[in-house]
Amino acid sequence: MATRRSNNDGQAASLANISRTRRAQLVAEFEGELGIDHKARALAAYEAKRWKVIKTIIVWTIAIMFFAIACHKLWLMGQDVDKPFTDLDPVRSILGRSE
User: Fold this and answer.
1) Cβ contacts of residue 87 below 8 Å, gap of 6+?
2) What is the pTM of this model?
3) If we measure between CA atoms, which residue out of 87, 35, 23 comes closest to residue 79?
């Protein structure tokens, strides 16, 4: 008597015979049904990394600007005195002279 093959064996044999392109399409459809989107996930990771770099550049630019402004202000304060380091008053120099 002949033994009957199960459906699982038939499906496995048919999967082995399909082309790579069709297999990739089936896998993509299956992952899509599960909610897995590799391209979107990779794009999101890239955008997150890119935004982190942009934020870092912005923060460092602002910090360097504040440092440059402070150094320039201190240099101007030093130019205003008759004798260096004798009558430095940072509050009066920053807010303006009220003499």
Assistant:
1) 81
2) 0.46
3) 87
